Amino acid sequence: MDEPLLSLRTFVEGIADELRTVEGAHWDLELGAIAELCYRQKRPPALLFDRIGDYPQGMRVLTGSTGSARRLARTLRLGDDLDDASVVAALRGKPSQWAAAAKDFPVQEVSTAPFLQNVVEKDDVDLLAFPVPRWHGGDGGRFIGTGCLVVTSDPETGVPNGGCYRMQVQNEGRSTTIAAVPGKHGAQNIARWFAKEGRAPVTVSFGHDPLLLVLGGTEVPGGISELDYAGAVLGERVPVFRSPENGLPIPAASEIAVEGWLYPDRRCVEGPFGEWTGYFAGSPRPNLDMEITRLYHRDDPILLGAPPGKPPHDYSYMRTMMKSAMIHDELVSMGVPGVTAAWAHEPGGGRLFVVVSVDQRYAGHSRQVGHLAANTPAAAYMNRYVVVVDDDIDVSDLGQVVWAMSTRTDPAVDIDVVGRTWGSKLDPMLPPDTPPYNSRAIIDACIPYERKDTFPRVAQSDPAYLREVLGRWGHVLED
């Protein structure tokens, strides 16, 4: 059988030169620890775990799928030979183009899929038949949903939404909680279904091309299905199998999938979990528990893992690249002149610390850019700091950014704080049992506009002269 579009197996074959196979690691902590050590390497490969402790050969877990420029560019179909800066450059303008084109690539329904090799009915469902890791020592259990795609729908329009949420195995493998983020489209859909019918349909894919991980974890505009959006990225319609239980789509290429329902009063204690902020988020608390009516899986399935944690983690690089391009595009689309670059830094999880550079053209320009950047749709959720710098600063270089902050700001006048903005229950600074607001600081680290012509000159050689000298003397600087 030919592999369907968005097959994880096809993706794995395509990254063979950046893939390492790990055999014999145990699902309980060891697999997660090996992945964590890998993320810290200068050029981290993807890892394919096999012969996992307590499980037979062929039951596999993939981590690090989008952790390099080449792998992320391949995922987004941007090319195979890009570096960090060129990935962001290639992404510029693409999200809006993909969103506009999504209507031209509606999903294609199919009647067969490889995951129909094994169909498990409700009473026999056991998610622990797969090597679901306990990723971190402080986790409240085994989390099958880290690289997943949770599909819900708007009960009024029928438009599906695909989100990536954490999912903890419950009831000895018979069910799983879904921690849909409040305010996100998936959580809104679930609430609407509860209000309308007292239950919400849901399907979940646990193994697929990481393009669905990328799209499920970023802000695809409301009213657009992530599966149609994926079709726009690919230039081809995504094949889906329609759930016979609730009518929602399942990607035909899925390795492991479930279908079923959520109910307002069906909950299990979930968490804590090592989250993307770098902390264990929240105390154990009840969360929506999915009634699984049917489980599907391929022979020898691959689970797509994307465990967060203290950055760098599994998808922090991907989020940095995506958010940097999206924030830049949104600022430009607002008609703001002079914005030259944006960067959502990886140590802030691609959300908490954003830097924007600007070619100042009028008094107040830099402050305008900072306040807009702090609340663009791509940056509004869980943002903490926005730093605006002049266009001589490389926004991706934290050393240069801190230098600008240290030498071009007066803290008394150049830091604005905005309160009661969109925060998250994952915020380690959020006091218990309080609404998830946060505040954010806009730091204007630009040369004061009125002093642009008189500010002290930067003590560095002309770049053209440095290139000339490097050509003559570069040999003495080689390792």
Automatic annotation (TrEMBL):
InterPro entries (alphabetical): UbiD (IPR002830), UbiD-like_C (IPR049381), UbiD-like_N (IPR049383), UbiD_Rift_dom (IPR048304)
Positions of the 3-octaprenyl-4-hydroxybenzoate carboxy-lyase-like N-terminal domain: 17-81
One GO CC term, this protein: cytoplasm
SUPFAM superfamilies: FMN-binding split barrel, UbiD C-terminal domain-like
Domain of life where this protein originates: Bacteria
Residue ranges of the TM segments: none
Residue ranges constituting the 3-octaprenyl-4-hydroxybenzoate carboxy-lyase-like Rift-related domain according to the UniProt record: 110-311
GO molecular function: carboxy-lyase activity
Any one biological process term the GO annotation gives: cinnamic acid catabolic process
A Pfam family matched in the record: UbiD_C
Name of the protein this chain belongs to: UbiD family decarboxylase
